[in-house]
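Good morning,

Attaching, inline, the C-alpha cells for the sequence recovery test we're adding to the shared suite. The designed sequence is right after.
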C-alpha cells in the first residue's frame, strides 16, 4: 500500500493516539466536483460582468466559502447575485458531480466496520447539501461542517474542532483526509492526523508536501487500510482485498 509518513513537526498529531474516526474534505476528496465547480464560479462571475478565471486562478481563492470568494472577485455588492447564479448552475448540472471512483466502496467498508465519519468542507451548507442529497449520503455522516458553520474558514482548524467535538472524539483521534494544502494546515494545527488524498486530477503532490502530511493515499480504499494499520501496528500493512 503506497503510504509515506512525514517527519513529526510542531503541531503534529500525537503518535501514540489510536485513530477512532475520519473527517473528510468534500471537493476533490469524496466528490469529483472541481471541474463543475470551476464552471459554476465562472458562470456567476461572468453573469456579474467579470472575466472567466482559470482553474489555477480560482484555486488560489479557495479556503473561504463561495460568498467570500465572489466578494473578492466581483465585489461585495454583487457577490450575492454571483453566488445565486453559481448555485443555480450547480443545481442544473448536479449529475456532473460524481463520487470519486472507490469512494462508495470506502464508505461502505467504514460503515461495516463501525467507523464514525464526518465532513469538514470549505463549501457553503447550501451547495454541500445539494451534493450530498443527490448522492443520498446525508445520513452517512455523524456531522457535516460547512464553511458557514464556522467563524474562521480553512486553514483554520475551527471546523475540525467542531466536527470532532460532535463525534465525541479528540482531534488526535481522527484522520483528516483532504486534497488541498489548507486541509493539511488545518490538520497540523488541530492535532489531527493529516492524510493527503492524491486521487483527484487537480491534487498537487508538491504543494501538499510543503505542509508535511502525516500520510499519503493514492486511492480511496487506502484510507481504510491505513486506518486498520494505525489501529493494529503490530500486524503490519493489511493486504488489499
Amino acid at each position: 500500500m503506497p503510504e509515506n509518513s512525514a517527519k513529526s513537526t510542531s503541531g503534529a498529531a500525537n503518535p501514540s493516539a489510536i485513530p477512532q474516526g475520519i473527517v473528510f474534505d468534500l471537493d476533490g476528496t469524496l466528490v469529483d466536483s472541481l471541474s463543475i465547480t470551476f464552471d459554476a464560479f465562472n458562470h456567476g462571475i461572468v453573469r456579474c460582468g467579470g472575466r472567466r478565471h482559470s482553474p489555477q486562478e480560482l484555486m488560489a481563492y479557495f479556503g473561504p466559502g463561495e460568498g467570500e470568494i465572489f466578494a473578492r472577485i466581483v465585489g461585495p455588492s454583487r457577490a450575492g447575485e454571483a453566488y445565486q447564479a453559481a448555485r443555480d448552475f450547480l443545481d442544473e448540472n448536479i449529475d456532473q458531480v460524481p463520487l470519486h471512483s472507490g469512494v462508495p466502496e470506502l464508505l461502505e467498508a467504514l460503515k461495516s466496520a463501525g467507523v464514525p465519519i464526518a465532513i469538514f468542507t470549505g463549501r457553503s451548507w447550501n451547495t454541500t447539501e445539494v451534493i450530498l442529497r443527490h448522492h443520498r449520503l446525508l445520513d452517512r455522516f455523524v456531522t457535516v461542517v460547512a464553511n458557514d458553520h464556522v467563524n474562521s474558514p480553512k486553514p483554520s482548524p475551527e471546523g475540525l474542532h467542531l466536527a470532532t467535538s460532535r463525534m465525541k472524539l479528540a482531534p488526535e483521534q481522527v484522520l483528516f483526509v483532504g486534497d488541498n494544502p489548507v486541509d493539511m494546515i488545518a490538520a497540523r494545527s488541530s492535532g489531527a492526523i493529516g492524510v493527503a488524498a492524491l486521487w483527484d486530477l487537480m491534487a498537487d503532490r508538491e504543494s501538499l508536501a510543503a505542509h508535511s502530511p502525516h500520510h499519503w493515499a493514492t486511492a480511496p480504499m487506502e484510507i481504510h487500510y491505513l486506518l486498520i494499520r494505525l489501529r493494529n501496528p503490530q500486524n503490519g500493512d493489511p493486504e488489499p482485498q
